[in-house]
């Protein structure tokens, strides 16, 4: 088994977990990155001959020694940090996403009520800027009790690089034992830089990344927070585009939705709507000729058409901008204008 995806620990956990009514996960439990395993046994390769052909009674063994695995997440029966003295910090970075405040609230309540953390939790304001400049607020269950009813991030957010050495200096000075980073690719890259700097200094500080992706493009997760809200909010513009398109002869309604590299929002919003005729996704290449050909066929049987496209669709038929945003992502061309 490839151990590259084994979670690194800050030390030997010797404290019994205070959690109750949970199923604890053992450290030797792993999840295959690719759950499809080819079995080379002759018994498995022999084709079934109708219903009379029986499967072997014993399971066919297969070797996972060279497979890439992820260590299974979940509560452990023993923990490292003492709830009486541990200091926790939380930061949110990058773009806003529905559900951010729910996540902040849940983390604070879990630490206080489930693990019995005594010290107020530090909330760093405006992303990694807050860590670099020691801009903090105190988070308690009383403070966060209603923030799930608010949009945006209660802590604020920002984009852009911050010096990991300065951030770790401040994390150590503030006595942070556990840092929870809530964000996407850029945020977790920054978290990894903090982890590497902490490791260089042999500090016992845990860095925990909570992935934030409204696109739902995260494997082995039922759904990412904010995805369902994005699908719901997309229904109004799709409905409006449909009404506009059907009100004129050969009308076309065009809606562009989020999705740089994945089209889950565009696809699921279109399925939920039931009024969309064409969906353009980053994962599926197309040409303008193919799009026009379909539109011609569509207008032979209908007088309108609704198109939903993800923002990252069709980038291969557009010249690259050659620009980067503050998070280091390529600035995309506007596929909506091209269409």
UniProtKB/TrEMBL annotation:
Task: List, in alphabetical order, the GO biological process terms annotated in this UniProt record.
Answer: fructose 6-phosphate metabolic process
Its required cofactor(s), as named, are: Mg(2+)
Name the chemical reaction catalysed here: beta-D-fructose 6-phosphate + ATP = beta-D-fructose 1,6-bisphosphate + ADP + H(+)
Supply one GO CC term from the record. Answer: cytoplasm
Q: Which InterPro entries match?
A: ATP_PFK, PFKA, Phosphofructokinase_dom, PKF_sf, PyroP-dep_PFK_TP0108
Q: Which residues form the Phosphofructokinase domain?
A: 88-315
- Family matches, as Pfam families: PFK
Q: Which SUPFAM superfamilies match?
A: Phosphofructokinase
Keywords from the UniProt entry: ATP-binding, Glycolysis, Kinase, Magnesium, Metal-binding, Nucleotide-binding, Transferase
GO molecular function list:
6-phosphofructokinase activity; ATP binding; metal ion binding
Q: What does this protein do?
A: Catalyzes the phosphorylation of D-fructose 6-phosphate to fructose 1,6-bisphosphate by ATP, the first committing step of glycolysis.
**Record protein name field:** Phosphofructokinase
Species name: Neocallimastix californiae
């Amino acid at each position: 088994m490839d151990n590259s995806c084994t979670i690194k620990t800050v030390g030997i956990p010797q404290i019994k977990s205070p959690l109750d009514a949970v199923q604890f996960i053992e450290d030797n439990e792993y999840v295959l990155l690719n759950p499809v395993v080819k079995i080379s046994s002759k018994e498995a390769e022999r084709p079934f001959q109708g219903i009379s052909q029986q499967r072997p009674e014993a399971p066919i063994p297969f070797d996972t020694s060279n497979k890439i695995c992820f260590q299974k997440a979940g509560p452990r029966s023993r923990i490292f940090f003492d709830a009486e003295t541990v200091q926790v910090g939380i930061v949110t970075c990058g773009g806003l996403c529905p559900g951010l405040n729910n996540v902040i609230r849940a983390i604070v309540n879990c630490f206080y009520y489930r693990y019995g953390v005594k010290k107020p939790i530090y909330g760093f304001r405006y992303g990694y800027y807050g860590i670099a400049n020691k801009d903090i607020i105190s988070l308690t269950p009383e403070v966060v009790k209603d923030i799930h009813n608010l949009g945006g991030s209660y802590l604020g957010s920002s984009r852009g690089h911050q010096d990991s050495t300065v951030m770790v200096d401040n994390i150590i000075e503030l006595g942070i034992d556990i840092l929870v980073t809530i964000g996407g690719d850029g945020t977790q890259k920054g978290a990894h830089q903090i982890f590497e700097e902490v490791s260089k200094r042999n500090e016992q500080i845990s860095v925990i990344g909570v992935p934030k992706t409204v696109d739902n493009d995260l494997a082995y997760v039922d759904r990412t927070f904010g995805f369902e809200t994005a699908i719901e909010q997309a229904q109004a513009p799709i409905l409006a585009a449909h009404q506009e398109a059907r009100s004129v002869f050969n009308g076309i309604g065009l809606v562009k939705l989020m999705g740089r590299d994945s089209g889950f929002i565009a696809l699921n919003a279109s399925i939920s709507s039931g009024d969309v005729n064409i969906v353009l996704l980053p994962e599926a290449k197309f040409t303008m000729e193919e799009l026009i050909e379909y539109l011609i066929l569509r207008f032979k049987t209908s007088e309108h058409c609704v198109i939903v496209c993800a923002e990252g669709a069709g980038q291969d038929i557009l010249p690259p901008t050659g620009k980067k945003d503050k998070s280091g992502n390529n600035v995309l061309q506007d596929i909506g204008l091209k269409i």
